[in-house]
Design a protein that fits this description.
Blueprint lengths: L1 H4 L6 E5 L5 E4 L1 H5 L16 H7 L3 H14 L5 E10 L2 E14 L2 E10 L1 H39 L7 H22 L8 E4 H10 L7 E4 L4 E4 L1 H18 L4 H5 L10 E6 L5 E5 L28 H12 L2 E6 L5 E6 L1
Parallel strand pairs: 7-9
Antiparallel strand pairs: 1-2, 1-5, 3-4, 4-5, 6-8, 9-10, 10-12, 11-12
Length: 338
């Protein structure tokens, strides 16, 4: 009953006796040779270790060495990940072996698990990361350096055309900076204990806040990558200032608050398991609260749509969670649980 139950498994399963001879194979094992153009075979009576060693393949020899260690009693279980090209395409497997005894005899259960989907995802991710690093290098050096030269020269020009030229170059610098943050925001470096009030004040100093004020109502400590946390706070602050009550667009909105100063509030969540950044602007409609984290989403004519996407990527890299709620003044409240 137990052996027949192994036939329903999608992985190839075989049982070897104490000498390495195959005494049982399941259906997936018997049918696997057809994927390489061979004839289906149960291989019962064949010494699996000798077949592996005679193949001349380094991976097969490694599998034989690990299984021999099981049979010799040196190990209780083994695992080998290996590549297997087939006429139907490249595949990857993990061979797992575990020894057991039955009626005083030693046996080894061998299972080959198909991990092709996982390996292809890993390869795709590595390729994507390599491409992102290439883009980061291009933005950081090949574009930013000549841009800085052009910006420095433009600031020296005395002409009615100089001011819009400088603004355009500064806008390009801002776009490059945000793109670099986005590319590099999904991996945390070494984390350490940080204090919310300190990090908030430092981040506030890096943002053009105009007439807005920062109020840190309380503080807490938690583990974070300080530099990436700064990016989270800076982008939340920029969003708050841009859409707060002091923002020109906020005044233009029919529901805008009628005063000239905006206050951005930072504090801890009720359960002391995170922090929030709240503004007094027009808020984020419920139907848009998921979309605002998509890269490229923006309601500003000059925005890149990367700021809040950067926030979400950094939050995910830390294993945190972020959501948008409504602040006490009706604005946006970004809640980050750490």
């Amino acid at each position: 009953m137990l052996l027949s139950g192994l036939d329903v498994l999608p992985s190839q399963v075989a049982i070897l006796d104490g000498t390495g001879d195959i005494v049982f194979t399941n259906r997936a094992w018997r049918e696997f040779p057809t994927e390489t153009g061979a004839v289906a075979d149960d291989h019962v009576g064949t010494n699996y270790l000798e077949v592996c060693e005679a193949s001349g393949d380094d991976e097969a020899s490694r599998i034989a060495d690990r299984l021999r260690a099981l049979l010799d009693g040196d190990r209780e279980r083994v695992s080998v990940e290996y590549f297997c090209p087939t006429p139907r395409g490249d595949r990857w497997f993990t061979m797992r072996g575990i020894e057991f005894e039955q009626s005083g005899e030693r046996y080894v259960l061998v299972m080959h698990v198909d991990i092709t989907d996982r390996k292809q995802s890993e390869i795709g991710l590595r390729n994507q990361n390599a491409q992102l690093e290439t883009v980061a290098g291009l933005l950081s050096h090949d574009l930013r350096n000549p841009l800085n030269v052009a910006l420095g020269r433009a600031e020296l020009v005395e002409s009615e055309h100089a001011e819009p030229l400088v603004r355009s170059l500064q806008r390009m610098e801002s776009i490059i900076s945000e793109a670099l943050e986005f590319v590099r925001s999904d991996e945390t470096a070494a984390t350490r204990t940080v204090e919310l009030r300190t990090r908030a004040n430092r981040a506030w100093e890096q943002v053009e806040t105009g007439d807005a004020d920062l109020s840190v109502v309380d503080s807490t400590e938690f583990e974070a990558d300080p530099q990436l946390l700064n990016h989270v706070l800076e982008n939340c602050f920029r969003n708050a200032v841009e859409h707060g009550s002091a923002s020109p667009r906020s005044h233009a909105h029919e529901d805008a608050v009628d005063h000239d100063e905006s206050t951005v509030v930072v504090g801890t969540l009720d359960l002391d398991d995170g922090f929030f950044v709240a503004d007094d602007g027009r808020g984020v409609p419920v139907e848009d609260r998921e979309r605002v984290f998509e890269d490229g989403y923006t309601t500003a004519s000059t925005g890149t749509g990367l700021g809040l996407a950067i926030v979400e990527r950094i939050v995910d890299a830390h294993g945190w969670r972020v959501r948008i709620a409504e602040s006490e003044s009706g604005g946006a409240r970004f809640e980050i649980r750490v």
